[in-house]
Each structure stands twice: as structure tokens, then as C-alpha cells.
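Notes to self after the Tuesday call (sharing in case useful).
The group wants a holo model before anyone commits to mutagenesis around the pocket. I volunteered. Ligand is SN-glycerol-3-phosphate. Logging inputs and output together so the record is complete.
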Amino acid sequence: MKFFVDTAEVDAIAELNELGMVDGVTTNPSLIMKSGRDIKEVTKEICDLVDGPVSAETVALDAEGMIAEGRELAKIAENIAIKVPLTWAGLKACNVLTNEGRMVNVTLCFSANQALLAAKAGATFISPFIGRLDDLNLEGLDLIADIREIYDNYGFETNILAASIRSANHMSECAKIGADVATAPPGVIKKMADHVLTDKGLDAFMKDWASTGQTIL
Ligand code: G3P
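Result:
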């Protein structure tokens, strides 16, 4: 499973990138707002840093507007994936931009039917939002499994990009289901390293080592 980082914070991306953990980046209007940066400037910095796809989201609500904004965002760098919402207008824009040879990420997906439409429209990525379904007491992970089954039934090449990931557990569950990509905030990716037994075991090793009086260097 590929790891994308869901943030527009360049320092946080750089830190994970140095460890080889970053296969791509996703941003959205809320993340740009949180960064306090200009969308084109910050997106360019991220694209220069990361080799994989960097999603930049359009904000127009009509297809023509999305297409124009998508073309403008695509000028930022070769690795831009244009993000459009899963509306009828977004599907139209997806189809046009895909036919121009651009990467398109269809976002705000909350149902298997929406994912099926995005695949038919030729999306490079479909972004089902797990956490926001969980917020409504629905099973976000079930949606990932349903989309996996449907795409595999027909050999759709659209990549399942699990989004709105809120916990380390979401990451391993997405990997078990077979999501192609999971995008998560940097804090969630770092949390994947945590285990109480690791901390406890390391503590015991350190105490025993100290009692030997030895050094390695
Ligand atoms: O990738 C989509 C993500 O940014 C949404 O996450 O936590 O706002 O639902 P969240």
C-alpha cells in the first residue's frame, strides 16, 4: 500500500520524506487554509520535494470552472493530480481532464455507487472518506472493502485512495482490505510506530544494560 501524506505543511512532509515514507501528498482547501500559504507557492514546494502525485483541489462548482482550474493547477508541476469533488460536474471534469492525459483524484466519495461512477469517468484515484463515515456511526472501512470488490470484479484501474484516516488502526485495516493508497496526517503515520510493549521492552533492556556497566562505542 502506498502512503500519501494528507497535509500542506512542507516541514512535516519533508521529515517523513527523508525516511522514504512518502509516495505522494494530498491537499484540499481546508489544508491550504490551515497552512496559511498561497496555494500555488506551497503546492510547488511540495511537488519539488516529493516524486509521487501531489493532489491539488479545484474549487469551482461547475465542470467548466473545474476544468479551467485543473489545467491551471497542472501547470505547477508534472506530478500534480487534479482533485475534483464527486458531483456530476466533478465527474464531467474528471472525464475531460483524464482524456487530456492528466491525473485526476475524485474526492468526497461516500458510497460504492459514487466510486463506480468515478471509475467509469476514468479517475486515476478515488478518495473514499473513512473517518467522516465513522463519525456518523457508519463503517468507513466497509466502503473501502466494497469498492475493492467492485473494482476487482471488473478490472477497473482507478486506484483506491483511502482518505479521512484518523487512526493508525485505519492504516493497517486499509492495507488488509487492499486499498492501493492511504492518505493520512503526519501524526497518524508516526503513531503507527507506537506500541506499549515496545516501550516497556525497551525500558527493561535499558535497565539491564545499565547494570552491566558496558558500552558499545
Ligand atoms: O483526505 C481527506 C481528508 O483531508 C479529510 O480528513 O479528517 O477532515 O475527515 P478529515
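Two things stood out.
The two ends are 38 Å apart (CA to CA).
The mean pLDDT is 98.
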